[in-house]
Amino acid sequence: MRANGYMAGTPKERASDLNALINDDEVKLIMTANGGASAIQILPFVDFYAFSKKPKLIVGLSDPSCLLNALTSKTGVIDRKSVV
Fold first, then answer.
1. Which residues 6+ apart lie within 8 Å of 39 measured at CB?
2. Which of 59, 67, 68, 80 sits 20 to 30 Å CA-CA off 14?
3. Considering only CA atoms, which of 37, 51, 38 is closest in space to residue 9?
4. Predicted TM-score of the model (pTM)
């Protein structure tokens, strides 16, 4: 992957990496290393349907809230263990 400013590739390339992790049955947890504006940029390219069929735990550094909120609102998938 090539650098794109301080990010590891274009939004489409980064979303492709995320989609590959979502579709990998051996991956149980995805940890983001960036968030905020860089997370917003990938939303048009995220495979929400795949995530709804193969949900993963997602944790992150920076602020991946927009990604987590989009995944929840578009798929209905939430971590029910964390809901009080």
1. 32, 62, 63, 64, 65, 66, 67
2. 80
3. 38
4. 0.76
